[in-house]
């Protein structure tokens, strides 16, 4: 089962009400919103209506909001050997 | 004197919005990029549906009728038909919302 990853790149402001309605139906409220939908003809038809505004990729599995956030987070540059609380256990 | 409603030539008089007659080469470049982006979106959808063994009438028509960016003539990329303009062509940048609408085909012969 594959999915469409749809990201709104250009805003629908000022475009016909029908176009804006498609954006709303797909859950694309603000620019850079990403939504996932299973590949189907009805979704494909909706994307064709807004093809100038979106970026579309075919992916094998959808990502949750938390996963998308985590994937954007940069590498912190360190790793934790031992937590401070654990290091102090011997002194209590 | 300052601010949004200051007295400038475009605001105080009639029609003095100066939209250049032709596109700059950077505008043309971005226009080509946009055309290619739409082409990739359509190709992605088509591939995804084909992998599931599906297709759409709308998609078949698009593939049959619409030229991709590489197949289009420069005339069609940067100008559009307009019956009110001398020689029936105007720059595509005069079309309202021209960066967010598709306008690829023009009447044959014009």
TrEMBL record, chain A:
Cellular localization per UniProt:
Mitochondrion
GO MF annotation list: structural constituent of ribosome
GO biological process: one example: translation
Alphabetical list of SUPFAM superfamilies matching this protein: Ribosomal protein L30p/L7e (SSF55129)
The reply to whether Transit peptide figures as a keyword in the UniProt entry is no
Sorted keywords for this record are:
Mitochondrion, Ribonucleoprotein, Ribosomal protein
Q: Which Gene3D superfamilies match?
A: Ribosomal protein L30, ferredoxin-like fold domain
One GO cellular component assignment for this chain's record is: large ribosomal subunit
> Organism's domain of life?
Eukaryota
Domain Large ribosomal subunit protein uL30-like ferredoxin-like fold span(s) in chain numbering: 4-54
The primary location reported for this protein is mitochondrion
- Asked if the Swiss-Prot or TrEMBL record annotates the protein with the keyword Ribonucleoprotein, the reply is yes
Instruction: Read off the InterPro entries from this record.
Output: Ribo_uL30_ferredoxin-like_sf, Ribosomal_uL30_bac-type, Ribosomal_uL30_ferredoxin-like
Q: Main role? A: Component of the mitochondrial ribosome (mitoribosome), a dedicated translation machinery responsible for the synthesis of mitochondrial genome-encoded proteins, including at least some of the essential transmembrane subunits of the mitochondrial respiratory chain. The mitoribosomes are attached to the mitochondrial inner membrane and translation products are cotranslationally integrated into the membrane.
Q: Which family does it belong to?
A: Belongs to the universal ribosomal protein uL30 family.
NCBIfam families in the record: rpmD_bact (TIGR01308)
Task: Spell out the protein name for this chain.
Answer: Large ribosomal subunit protein uL30m
From TrEMBL, chain B:
Residue ranges that the Swiss-Prot or TrEMBL entry lists as coiled coil: none
User: Which cellular compartments is it found in?
Assistant: Mitochondrion
Q: What InterPro entries does the entry give?
A: Ribosomal_mL60
User: Quaternary state and partners of this protein?
Assistant: Component of the mitochondrial large ribosomal subunit.
Key words, A-Z: Mitochondrion, Ribonucleoprotein, Ribosomal protein
Q: What is the recorded name of this protein?
A: Large ribosomal subunit protein mL60
**Record-level GO cellular component terms:** mitochondrial large ribosomal subunit
């Amino acid at each position: 089962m594959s999915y469409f990853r749809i990201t709104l790149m250009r805003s629908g402001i000022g475009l016909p009400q029908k176009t804006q309605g498609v954006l709303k139906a797909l859950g694309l409220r603000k620019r850079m919103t990403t939504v996932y939908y299973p590949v189907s003809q009805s979704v494909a038809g909706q994307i064709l209506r807004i093809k100038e505004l979106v970026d579309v990729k075919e992916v094998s599995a959808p990502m949750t909001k938390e996963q998308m956030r985590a994937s954007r987070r940069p590498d912190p540059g360190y790793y934790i050997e031992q937590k401070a609380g654990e290091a102090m256990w011997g002194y209590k | 004197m300052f601010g949004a409603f200051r007295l400038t030539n475009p605001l105080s008089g009639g029609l003095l919005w100066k939209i250049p007659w032709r596109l700059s080469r950077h505008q043309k470049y971005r226009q080509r990029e946009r055309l290619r982006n739409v082409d990739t979106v359509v190709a992605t959808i088509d591939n995804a549906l084909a992998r599931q063994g599906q297709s759409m009438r709308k998609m078949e028509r698009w593939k049959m009728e619409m030229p991709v960016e590489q197949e289009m003539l420069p005339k069609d990329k940067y100008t559009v038909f307009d019956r009110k303009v001398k020689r029936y062509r105007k720059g595509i940048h005069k079309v309202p919302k021209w960066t967010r609408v598709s306008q690829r085909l023009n009447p044959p012969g014009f």
